[in-house]
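Q: Can someone sanity-check these two? First one:
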Amino acid sequence: MSTTVSSHKSSTSTSTFGRRVVAGVVGGIAGGIVFGMMMAMMGLLPLLASMVGSESPIVGFLVHMMMSIMIGLGLTVLFGNRLLTSYGRGAIVGIVYGAIWWVLGPLMVMPMMLGGALFAIDVAALLSLMGHMIFGVILGLVAVRVLSQRK
């Protein structure tokens, strides 16, 4: 049994760059789809589309998915070998990573791009925090799964 645990840890601690890229893309897509569905139900996709001069929910979803993939890559390529070594750590790191992106995205970058107030926290912002943390957990768990697969 200890052999399985140690081989699992060694495979994640020495993941190749390519494996970390795949983990980020797949994890970003998985988390992005779930969070995107939540955003669609709340009618927020046109807001994302407005960042690129559109009002289309489809464009908003595509913008969201591109950001989800890039954010997933940021986690796995930069930190995958050190932080994503077990499902528990993946979930915790994902929650924290999602919260960081909530601050960077909806509280800072989007208001700067769209002329809104920085760090405006209301019910919608808190729902966004929940969505970002759910995204992060899914990203972290999927990334651990991809990183732990045998080569």
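And here is the second, same format, sequence then tokens:
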Amino acid sequence: MLSISRFFYVSVRTDPDDLAATQHILQISRRNNRRLDVTGCLLLAGPLFAQVLEGRRDAVVPLVARIAADPRHSEVRVLLEQQTMERQYGEWSMGYFDDSGLEERLRALLTKPHSDPDAVADIMARMRPDTVLGALR
């Protein structure tokens, strides 16, 4: 089995009121991720994004670099980069959910000088596919 690279980042949206931009991001991501064999999930929590991306390293690393340079957000902070043997988001080219209740937890991850692995793991667990609720929570 091939090794999978998984990245998790948090960022601040430059225009929190622009929901059309988020829909555009999802539309383009889903199309491009299928082509690149990248899976993941985008979380919107008030003015913050959190995203998990997973796939071959040669596909995910350049994608993360392009995302970090995207002017639709700032303060991009990669909090997890790991190699694994299995995808956790394999059913989604790009899942999505909106949970403003996670805003303070994401803000804490963004502003703490050191990453909190337990907090990152908890947020990522909340972003995983749910067989009952489906891809669009």
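A (reply): Looked at the second one. The mean pLDDT is 90. The first strand starts at residue 4 and ends at 13.
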